[in-house]
Amino acid sequence: MQTRACDSLFQTQLALPGRRAGKVRDLYSLPAEQGAPRMLLVATDRISAFDVVMPTPIPGKGRLLTTISAGWFGLIRRANLVGDHVLSLDVPVCGGIDPAQRDALEGRTMVCRAAQVVPIECVARGYLAGSGWSEYCAAQQVCGVPLPRGLRQCERLPEPIFTPATKAAEGHDENISFARAAAVVGSSLMERLRDLTLRIYSLAAEHALACGLILADTKFEFGFELAPDGRPTDRLLLVDEVLTPDSSRYWPLDGYEAGHDQQSFDKQFLRNWLLELVASGRWDKTPPGPEIPAEVVDGTAARYREALTRLFGSRSPADLLRR
Questions:
Q1: For 75-88, what is each residue's pLDDT tens digit?
Q2: Which of 24, 96, 173, 197 could form a disulfide with 15 if both were Cys (CB 3.0 to 4.6 A apart)?
Q3: What CATH architecture is 117-252?
């Protein structure tokens, strides 16, 4: 287990099989329970931008992400929209985790049903921002979805749209059309994913608005639960994180005004600093990322904490997850 100062966890090296490292999460295989395969997801304090993992952690970010995900998983469960992969938020008791590691893992772990992940990012957009704004300026559409003329940056769309993307193991995800996504995984599944994505987005956007936040866009991942023999079943699950500031744009409702970038409670604060480096020729959006100065680290962490407080207050992750 490698940590950095200020209660920060940059990466893990647990004595568990099947280790994989994503941009933020470390994944491990756990012993099966009642024959069902399980995974351990650990939310580290890594942060990525422009699909590059930065060398500087954001202390405490993994715990914030886990708590926010727990809140949203609980809300989605209570709405009975779709099943999810979360079995427990407790650090598992097993031979691959020694007592000295448990404190560092506390509040960062999800014990999950193993699933075969659908290789499509399911993106819902309610406002015109980010890569969607760039596509609109170039072609008056986003991922093949035509939009009205004259929309402004960050303007609310007439209705939320579904804009899939490829799920890249390395490098940049790519926005694609619905037809292209359907060619990868099938039309029937994509229609189901589109419906679920927009329904979850609408539920989350309504909750966020009641908390004084605009949920501009977000992305979800889905997968099929694995059977004891390791083969995928037909049970579709919402997997990975959900509706965190890592995967979503949150803007304060107070002061929102279309036509320009918005203040945000997500990692746009970091992106803006990085874009200044790009504009000055000090970084080109390729690895390695630059070290992040303390004021940007602190500012990013503060925005994540504010998002959690506004959305779910100070309730515990276990309480938030409860049906």
A1: 999 999 999 999 99
A2: 96
A3: 2-Layer Sandwich (3.30)
